[in-house]
Amino acid sequence: MYAFKYPWLLAVLVLPLLVYWLMPPYREEQDSLRLTFFHYITKSLGLRPQSGAVIPRSNWLQKIMAPVCWSLIVLALARPQFVEPPIQKIQPGRDLMLALDISQSMETRDFLTPDGKRMRRVDAVKEVVGNFIQKREHDRIGLIVFGQAAYPVTPFTLDHQACLKILSQIDAGMAGPQTMIGDAIGLAIKEFQASDTKERVLILLTDGNDTGSRMPPRKAAEIAKQNGITIHVVGLGDPGITHGADKVDYSALASIAQATGGQVFHGENQAELEKAYAALDRITPQNFKTLRYQPRRELFVFPLGAAVVLLTGCHLLMIVVSLVMRLMARWRTKIETPVTSNIFQVHI
Question: What is the pLDDT of residue 53?
């Protein structure tokens, strides 16, 4: 699409006509030679002297080039532009960090698939979390895995395909056998320090209890709250189990979430885990801004260049014509001038 940046300047096109119609002609007085016998000359030539002016005459080329060049110059001043199709850019309004427990206990095969087969906890988590990531196309997502220690896997990014590819490569036991929940929250706080978004959410998934983090989970949650981070916790395992090494302390997980204004979800099986992440998808709707930009290509150089070329060509043509006419005038003068020669008579 073509447009003018200053279309109101096109009104200047009629300015020469207004000047021609409304302004008086330009007059200039020049010194003249006074002749006392001027009336004798006019009488002998049959002329009647009267007051007047010498009006410069213009040729047909000048009459055509003047309005054309003026129009091109005004067109260039109006800044013609080619407006390209709009480009839309999504600016995320939320950073979402996923902290996944991949301790040795995630090897447990107690999750049932829809067809009744048993699968490992880590495989169910990877499938559900992968679907969750695909739905959050406008959020920047980061990924942390933890076990005996916490490790940043991906920084905050909109390249969700890279997150999914890395997610498919992690496995239970890669971070050690223990569960360091407090260290995972502390690492998430550090990762959020590079974030400039106002809304920050950490989704923590674990199937066990904290087994000796350097920072207690409750204390880490309080620090997260001070940094504007909301923590939602997803626990894996049967909440009815109150003993054993793999039991989930939902009261401890609830205290972590409540400290930051988050919620706790139970993921006893794959169906419940999917419901938990569906609920998280609802309570954290995607927050983003759409930036719209239309590139513009400047075209004023074309009418301006055309005006320069036409004016230059016109003046060069007039110079050439003037030179040719002078040469022809000299040639005619030589032909019309009588040739005189001395005739010598030789008497023998």
Answer: 58
Whether the CB-CB separation of 178 and 213 falls below 8 Å is answered with no
d(CA 60, CA 203): 82
In a domain, 319, yes or no: yes
Same-domain status, 210 and 257: yes
Q: What is the DSSP letter of 347?
A: P
Q: What distance lies between CA 310 and its chain's CA centroid?
A: 38
The C-alpha atoms of residue 145 and residue 162 are separated, in whole angstroms, by 15
CA distances 12 to 5, 8, 74, 298, Å, are 15, 8, 7, 21
The tokens for 48 are: 């009647």
* Global confidence as pTM: 0.61
Could you read off the pLDDT of 15-59 as tens digits, one per residue?
A: 888 888 888 877 777 666 777 777 777 778 777 766 665 666 777
According to the model, what pLDDT value does residue 343 have? 46
Q: Domain tally for the chain?
A: 2
Residues 264 and 237: beta-carbon distance below 8 Å: no
